[in-house]
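Our preliminary data section would be incomplete without showing what the modeling component actually yields. Below, a chain of 253 amino acids is followed by its predicted structure, encoded as tokens that our downstream tools consume directly.
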Amino acid sequence: MTMHIQQNNAVYNVKHLNIPAQAGVEFYQHPQSQFLYIKSGVLAVITRSGRYFIPACHGFMIPANIRHELLAKTDVALTAVYITDDIFETTIDQPFVAHASTFFKALMNELLTLPSSNKQTLIHHRLIAVFQDYLPQLTKRDMFLPYPQDERLLAIIEKLQKYPSMKSDLLSWGKFVQTSARTLTRNFKKETGLTYSQWRQRLNIQIAIKHLAQKDEIASIAALLGYQSSSSFIYMFRQQIGISPKQFLKTLI
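Predicted structure:
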């Protein structure tokens, strides 16, 4: 379903899309901003600087002209809203992930039912205005995993993404990529803004979110990530996200 909505010189193109697991869209960009609301599943959005994970009942805002790739980590149903003009009071120049409130979920469903622009009434225009006002106020979630450019660091993170339970420290990784732990420590912070430990926790969060969305047991997720106990994993998750895995699961409904 596709429709165009005109309000204050802003044109919206609203679509509902279903993307099967492991399918997606290769790197592309568009001249308008885009907001993706994930109704179900987990979507990864990859940019040149890193990867965002967007689970169900969350949204992703990406400004115009940023090259990105979409990859469904599970079967995904989403609503895409394209915004051709800068309609917000404050400039949105960086992508972000946000949790959708119950009200905003209903608002996204209503946007899909809007008639074509020549059949819209004042109430439809007001609905669009609510979307414009409400979007910047959504609660942001830090679901971004920055990617380094250093080939040695890329070799390390490729291994970690395949084998997240690996216990190797930077001294061991230094032997693997033939450089010093000090150099790796310095470059990790310089290129990602995170320490090695912080980066691994971000990776663990993204992996955990995918498996939580698949209704996997917390104990099995903890083991997959190399935690010796579920309580250690739950503590890390709460430190990163602010709520427990079980509480987070409730936000996906």
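Confidence is low (pLDDT under 50) at residues 1-9. DSSP finds nine helices and twelve strands in the chain. Preliminary results of this kind motivate Aim 1 of the renewal.
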